[in-house]
């Protein structure tokens, strides 16, 4: 499709609409900008930077952890692999309170199937 205009475009947002019996109304219009001195055929917007792919870290699970102390130690060993900045180990820390609460429920059969500890 070739579009010709009677004047140069500016940095405003334009709406291009195409109507017809075979055109879905949802896809019948698009917002675009015409920028001066643009080498790209479409829009001059830079593509969004792709996030770096983070390699999956191996998770070591201690299947012999069956009591509060072993659940707590297993989680304390696991946390630095995912959150290295969290170094607080005081009982007053909210994270430690949640960790100890979750480990307290570790022996209950309905929760120990993998949904918590």
Indicate the multimeric state.
Answer: single chain
Beta-strand segment tally: 2
Name the helix and strand elements from N-terminus to C-terminus, one letter apiece. Answer: EEHH
Helical residues, percent: 10-25%
Shape: elongated
- Tally the helices: what do you get? 2
How widely separated are the two ends? Answer: 59 Å
Mean pLDDT: 78
- SS-based structural class? alpha+beta
- Low-confidence stretches at least 5 residues in length (pLDDT < 50)? none
**Percent of residues in β-strands:** 5-15%
What is the alpha-carbon Rg in Å?
28 Å
Main β-sheet description: 2 strands, antiparallel
With strands numbered from the N-terminus, the spatial order across the biggest sheet is: 1-2
Describe this protein's structure.
By secondary structure, the protein is α+β, with helices and mostly antiparallel strands. Helices cover about 20% and strands about 5% of the residues. The protein is built from 2 helices and 2 strands, in the order ββαα. It has helices at about 70-80, 95-105, and strands spanning about 15, 30.
Question: Notable features of this structure?
Answer:
single chain, 117 residues, alpha+beta, two-stranded antiparallel ribbon, 7% strand, elongated
Q: What's the helix and strand layout?
A:
Blueprint: E1 14-17, E2 29-32, H1 68-82, H2 94-104
Antiparallel strand pairs: 1-2
Helix pairs in contact: 1-2
């Amino acid at each position: 499709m070739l579009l010709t205009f009677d004047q140069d475009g500016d940095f405003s947002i334009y709406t291009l609409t195409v109507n017809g019996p075979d055109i879905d109304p949802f896809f019948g219009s698009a917002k675009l900008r015409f920028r001066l001195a643009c080498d790209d055929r479409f829009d001059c917007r830079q593509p969004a930077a792709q996030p770096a792919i983070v390699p999956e870290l191996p998770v070591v699970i201690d299947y012999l952890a069956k009591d509060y102390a072993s659940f707590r130690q297993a989680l304390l060993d696991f946390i630095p692999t995912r959150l290295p900045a969290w170094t607080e180990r005081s009982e007053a820390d909210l994270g430690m309170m949640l960790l100890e609460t979750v480990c307290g429920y570790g022996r209950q059969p309905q929760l120990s199937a993998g949904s918590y500890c």
